[in-house]
Amino acid sequence: MSQDVRTLLEAVKNGTVDIDTALMTLKQAPFQDLGYAHVDLHRTVRQGVPEVIYGEGKSVEQVVGIIQSMKANGIDNILVTRLPKAMAETIQTQISQTMQMHVSLHYYEAGRIGIVGDMPVETTSSHIAVVTGGTSDYNVAEECALTAEFYGNSVQRIYDVGVAGIHRLLHHLDELMSAKVIVVIAGMEGALASVVGGLVDVPVIAVPTSVGYGTAFGGVTALLSMLNSCASGVSVVNIDNGFGAAYMANMINHIGESK
């Protein structure tokens, strides 16, 4: 049960909200049909976090419309992934002009992430380590790290510590071993995930990237290597899927955290 519903039911129990008001709140349409999108307004009820807008392939007008729908239904913090810079600038202009309330879209170019609202002030006591093989994995890593931070996680970035210079990784053993979950992001042959998996006693989420020469096959080689990891405790998400890794890491990192 989501915290919002629990809070509502507790308010009914202690008499600060009457039954009819609570019933009307729960009867709200679970989605809004915009014609081009069915905005999922009850995802927070089901999963604890609101719908995420995938920006790539959508028009500016579609993204703005979804943001307006979510804001009108009380969703203050909204995450937009895979958002091109030029599109983000246009969206910011349009939402400032069309929405009566002041709404800002904060854009993080490295991760192609747009955030309506603010990053959480309070973060988890435990942390997620985001580790990359090389600097070329930076964009996927930032998508991952920023998404994790958006969901209220403490994040430790450990970048450019791939197997071509393994001493760089070993220099960060303390940070790795103190993390609650580790996301390893690497292209080429994707060996870094197995190395990290063999060093730590926490879950490792591997993200293959499309970085590499010809036989890297756009990340397929790294994907297959990570799927065949000989280290236990390594799971794998899709190629370049920093968001998916962050979402899973967030779920793991919040286990045991106070609500």
From TrEMBL:
GO molecular function: hydrolase activity
Pfam families associated with the record: AIRC
SUPFAM superfamilies: N5-CAIR mutase (phosphoribosylaminoimidazole carboxylase, PurE)
InterPro entries attached to this UniProt entry: P2CMN_synthase_LarB, PurE_dom
PurE domain residues: 126-258
Single biological process term from Gene Ontology: 'de novo' IMP biosynthetic process
Origin superkingdom: Bacteria
SMART domains: AIRC
Annotated protein name in UniProt: Nickel pincer cofactor biosynthesis protein LarB
